[in-house]
């Protein structure tokens, strides 16, 4: 790969063509992804790595899937009351999924219901991407901040978590690129 620092035109083009999903990644990684996208090979890369969509289409199936992952990895955590697909989550606003706690006073007690909402875009996404988002939101049941303990928990539940997160960003970028097959 050609270093961007030696070629000011490439660096200028890169500055004019930001990759919103990869803003925090090093310039050389962004340059390689930009080349894949510009050559029309990004979709092929994703299709090779993640050929099959998942079969979790409705909220009931999603709840069962989330609950099974929670039972496998976080048995001692607080109960989960709801897991649904949410069409209102804005992917560009960095909300791929949310976790909320709704507290109510019931008699003399405070009752908390926890729910996970997953962006509707993941209804049609490859199975590993749905797993990555669910793992991320489940980790928030134990760790509220994105700190080392949080990411350690994510990689405990999904050993390929960081690669999946990166590839998910590529998937979202590919989905948003004009003239690409939406899938």
From TrEMBL:
Segments traversing the membrane? none
Give one Pfam family, short name only: YgjP-like
Which InterPro entries has this protein been placed in?
Answer: UTP_pyrophosphatase-like (IPR053136), YgjP-like_metallopeptidase (IPR002725)
Q: Where does the record place the YgjP-like metallopeptidase domain?
A: 108-168
Please identify the protein, giving its name as recorded: M48 family metallopeptidase
Instruction: Please report the organism this UniProt entry assigns to the protein.
Output: Luteimonas fraxinea
Q: What is the lineage of its organism?
A: Bacteria, Pseudomonadati, Pseudomonadota, Gammaproteobacteria, Lysobacterales
